[in-house]
Design a protein that fits this description.
Layout: H1 5-13, H2 15-31, E1 37-38, H3 50-61, H4 77-91, E2 100-103, H5 105-117, E3 123-128, H6 133-140, E4 144-149, H7 158-164, E5 169-175, H8 187-204, E6 209-213, E7 236-241, E8 254-258, H9 265-278, H10 286-292, H11 302-319, E9 331-332, H12 341-350, E10 353-354, E11 356-357, E12 367-370, H13 375-393
Parallel strand pairs: 1-10, 3-4, 3-5, 5-6, 6-7
Antiparallel strand pairs: 2-8, 7-8, 9-12, 11-12
Length: about 400
């Protein structure tokens, strides 16, 4: 076999979104791209804000000597200063540059964190439904992912969480706003999580780290705010990117932030910096570090995502599709119209609609739609969703 058995096995587990992509190519070749309604990919469609483009123009038209050279593996000191100042402002806590590591997106940041924290066999708790890549990130660094069910409304089930939190657990990984549900975990839930973790830390005489993956933090609706985990648990680490809030998915720029009270904070920073280097990232892209340092308070036009959310959700709800209105991100996670969500996805494909079964996110019986698509895709798909609903009701 040309590739390892383990990679072959993981590739099979990761095949849902890839299968949808391949099915999309087939359908588009057969029916034409305008007649296929692809909701399968979470590719941010909102363009970067004016402030980012202006910063980028200034940088490329007035370059400074050494702007594109290597820098400390943790990132450009001035950019880390700006990130730490932003965090201090928004959290009310004190951050410094020695708590920030610039990374190649949130994916790179999570791999840096897991590489640093995990010994072989350490458990990482993840909550279903979850971003499918978490399974592979944990496996890559020798850990064992442990899936914990959430409540019917996709909030953290605190009883299930406490039962799963045994002496093997090193990391509790959350994602809020959540992909695929759009749920934002409430402050009260996070506070109780923190209390449980701290109680277990004392019981097991070890550190347990609460890691929050937050690339959708600024993509929220209806006045919802995303609580900071730093207030919930001392051993907290935030991993994020500018892929969504600045519309920079392809530029691979993000950061890891270590909580002010995390223990041992200095060693965590040293470990993350080392992992950034030895994983082959070396450092986050220099040009992007310079650019985002000038627009940390900017964001894409949330009105665009809000409009798309209404454009998709309102008619689907009127038809009878059941779902919780997403509080953040740009995903909808409705219930499947039949028990077998994979079979339901095939019904959608017959109407040239591409979605991802909830099975791919560890939660059968649902399906994910990404409304980060052109308006025409949503508008033209509505009659086809109606046809599927009518056919299955019969």
């Amino acid at each position: 076999m040309a590739i390892s058995g383990r990679v072959s096995e993981l590739m099979m587990q990761a095949s849902w979104i890839r299968r949808m992509f391949e099915e999309g190519l087939r359908l588009k070749a057969k029916h034409g791209a305008d007649n296929v309604f692809d909701f399968s990919l979470g590719n941010p469609i909102a363009e970067p804000p004016r402030e980012f483009n202006e910063a980028l123009v200034r940088l490329v038209t007035h370059p400074t000597p050494g702007m594109h050279r290597y820098m400390p593996n943790a990132g450009i000191p001035e950019t880390r200063d700006r990130v730490s100042a932003m965090l201090s402002k928004h959290t009310g806590l004190t951050f410094g540059r020695d708590q920030i590591v610039m990374t190649c997106g949130a994916g790179g940041g999570l791999n840096v964190v897991l590489k640093t924290l995990l010994d072989a066999g350490d458990r990482v708790l993840i909550f279903s439904p979850y971003f499918v890549e978490y399974i592979f990130y944990v496996d890559t660094h020798g850990g064992v992912p442990v899936k914990v069910a959430t409540t019917p409304t996709f909030d953290i089930d605190l009883d299930a969480f406490e039962k799963a939190l045994n002496s093997w657990v090193k990391v509790v990984l959350i994602n809020s706003p959540n992909n695929p549900t759009g749920v934002v975990y409430p402050e009260a839930t996070l506070k109780k999580m923190g209390e449980i973790i701290q109680r277990k830390e004392k019981e097991f005489d070890k550190e347990i780290y609460l890691v929050s993956d937050e690339p959708y933090r600024r993509l929220v609706y209806d006045g919802v705010t995303v609580p900071w985990i730093f207030h919930a648990h001392p051993n907290s680490i935030v991993v994020t990117s500018f892929s969504k809030d600045l519309g920079l998915g392809g530029e691979r720029i993000g950061f890891v932030a270590i909580g002010p009270d995390a223990d041992p904070r200095e060693k965590l920073f040293q470990g993350f910096t080392f992992a950034n280097r030895v994983l082959g990232f070396i450092n986050a892209p220099a040009l992007m570090q310079h650019a985002i340092g000038e627009c940390l308070e900017s964001s894409v036009d949330m009105g665009e995502y809000r409009r798309k959310r209404e454009l998709l959700c309102n008619p689907l709800r009127e038809m009878g599709y059941e779902f919780a209105m997403p509080q953040g991100a740009f995903y909808l996670f409705p219930k499947s119209l039949v028990d077998d969500d994979v079979l339901f996805i095939r019904h959608l494909q017959q109407e040239n609609i591409l979605a991802v079964p909830g099975t791919g996110f560890g939660t059968p019986g649902y399906f994910r739609l990404s409304f980060s698509v052109e308006d025409r895709v949503i508008e033209h798909s509505i009659p086809h969703f109606q046809k599927v609903m009518k056919a299955l009701r019969k």
